[in-house]
Amino acid sequence: MPGIMIRPNQPLEKVLRIFKKQCEKAGIVGDLRKRTSYEKPSIRKRKKSEAARKRNQKQQRKFEA
Fold first, then answer.
1. Does any domain span residue 58?
2. How many Å apart are CA 65 and CA 8, to the nearest integer?
3. How confident is the model at residue 5 (pLDDT cuts 50, 70, 90)?
């Protein structure tokens, strides 16, 4: 869980920006987006294999050059 120390006289906008950045790094926002709607296991499996296929194609292009 991200947490920040607030110093006296620190602007609220800066504190919020630091907190949002820590949440992004921790993966909280992405996880929240995934959990907002139910995804059937078959669709989840299809997306996972699609991502793996794209990763492999990208890696092959990288090694060919």
1. yes
2. 53
3. confident
Tracing tokens 């006296």 back to the chain, one arrives at 8
Domain residues for 62?
Answer: 38-65
| Residue 54: per-residue pLDDT | 97
- Structural domains of the chain, count: 1
Q: Is residue 13 part of a domain?
A: no
Structural domain includes residue 60: yes
pTM of the model: 0.53
